[in-house]
From TrEMBL:
Domain (AMP-dependent synthetase/ligase) ranges: 66-456
Gene designation per UniProt: acs
Database matches in Gene3D superfamilies: 3.30.300.30, N-terminal domain of ligase-like (3.40.50.12780)
Entry's family note: Belongs to the ATP-dependent AMP-binding enzyme family.
Pfam families, sorted: ACAS_N, AMP-binding, AMP-binding_C
Organism: Mucilaginibacter aquatilis
Taxonomic superkingdom: Bacteria
Enzyme Commission number(s) from the entry: 6.2.1.1
GO biological process, one term: acetyl-CoA biosynthetic process from acetate
Protein name as catalogued: Acetate--CoA ligase
InterPro entries reported for this sequence: Ac_CoA_lig, ACAS_N, AMP-bd_C, AMP-bd_C_sf, AMP-binding_CS, AMP-dep_synth/lig_dom, ANL_N_sf
Amino acid sequence: MKISSFEHYKQVYQQSVSQPEQFWEGVAETFQWRKKWDMVLEWNFKEPDIKWFQGGKLNITENCLDRHLETDGDRPAIIWEPNDPTEDHRVLTYKQLHDKVCQFANALKNNGVQKGDRICIYMPMIPELAIAVLACARIGAVHSVIFGGFSAQSIADRIQDAECKVVITADGGFRGPKDLPLKSVIDDALVQCPSVKRVIVLTRSRTPVSMIKGRDVWWEDEIKKVETQGNPDCPAEEMDAEDMLFILYTSGSTGKPKGVVHTCGGYMVYAGFTFDTAFQYNKGEVYFCTADIGWITGHSYIVYGPLSQGATAVMFEGVPTWPDAGRFWDIVDKYKVNILYTAPTAIRSLMSFGTDLVKSHDLSSLTKLGSVGEPINEEAWHWFDENVGKGNCPIVDTWWQTENGGFMISPIAGVTPLKPGYASLPLPGVQPVLVDENGKEIEGNDVSGNLCIKFPWPGMLRTTYGDHERCRQTYFSTYADMYFTGDGCMRDADGYYRITGRVDDVLNVSGHRIGTAEVENAINMHSSVVESAVVGYPHDIKGQGVYAFVISPDKHENEDLTRKDILMTVSRIIGPIAKPDKIQFVSGLPKTRSGKIMRRILRKIAEGDVSNLGDTSTLLDPGVVDEIKAGAL
Ligand code: WT7
């Protein structure tokens, strides 16, 4: 939605909350439906039961591909930059992407995939990942993409939870200097996954892999079969607005990740609308989102949002610091990127290399910048603004979550007056509220509280896969009739929102959500560990680091060996992304008489702030605190 001024935003916003159904109906009409909906919205936050655009029929890939073919068929949809800058880049026009999606969708059908089947995708950041995602959507199969940094055990848990029938992967992948043995990790996972009948393996690194007869097939061979069948088209499956589109697993405060479920109609409308609105995207602009498709940011803002709007998206296989820390700037210069959407952790990491690499590249194509994943600290905001945006590019600091499907609180580029560190104001149609610990709404400005949303939006999660009660418990039971985000927030005198971080036991490490309970479970699997407690602490680059307090009476006399064993265990159980940055061995943990770990005390110690630990008299053994303080890392 194009917004011409701040006044215009305020008008649209007012109208969107006074008549939300009318507002969203108008937005939905900008998409292509096979059949129009009978009812815009039916909802209650008690069960919860949320239905948008009921009776509507559509296929999201017709909106992302087919509808652009006539006018924009030759426009680049995806520009792919490989990990190794000396390898050729690839450009897929809308026409080419459409054809490849249809081909692979037919290959999936040849392999027995039907509407409603769950498909696990574990792939590197190459165009075939987007093709696999869209091919699933084309035929109504439900994709569950798993980020390449998760271990075999994590993959197995997710495949079992969703009872996936097929896995799509690659032999291997490249990330910076590293080779990722993707197929080998999948093979380890599948030992525990009887539901998987077929594994489709794309050739990327041509690393040796074992291909199991009757189960494993090569992507390229399956495409050849489709070509010999001579039927390149694959008509899109007609989906109900509320049919499941995908599952994406995310961590929470319990040990087990949840499968967040998004549905076809509402998610499409929300991803497309928010992309267009927050970035004020104009056709022809080159847009570069640095996220991985393994996370929601990649789903909504590399694949579905931009493609639904006919945008040109750059997709990058590698990392910002390889072969050197000028890689983003190379890419901006090479493809004349107009919009760069990245994360505070990437900005802070690049900041640490100084400004020479930024200055030696031509970044004059940039007109808009974006940030996502965690509260952006002011230092990083100003560095991004001055050195990358040259003081000329609005920074849209987009606050949202996996469960939200798309941006919730965000500036509108060129429209909303900015404040560093503030996600600013809700997008049209979004109704945030702050509540106190009793669930009472805190009205007025210059206040702080827990952030909730009091009215549905089309992109919200509908359930957690296979466990609706868990969805209700986690998001809809803390406060009556509201969706609880898990974030703390302040609203300043101007009504601007500033997210202050999670208020639950969830860490945000480099913009990725990691549950402390999950990491503790993994540490506790190590044979010499009796108990552990994990908290976050401020980390210069990652935002939050993982600090583990571990009881291990039988540890090796060289503590570092046990430390490394614990890290290896966490890598095996969750994945390298959850490895603790610090492990402190302790003889006990501060517990209340009822046995509850007092994390508040551990958090203070991990933060290096031991001056005021508060009341420790209720502890079972107050002496343990002095020992932990003395041994702090
Ligand atoms: C959590 C959601 C959806 C984006 C990727 C992360 C934090 C995200 C911001 C921001 C302050 C932010 C919140 C949120 N967060 N963006 N712009 N400002 N905090 O998705 O893994 O679902 O994590 O990330 O704490 O609850 P996620």
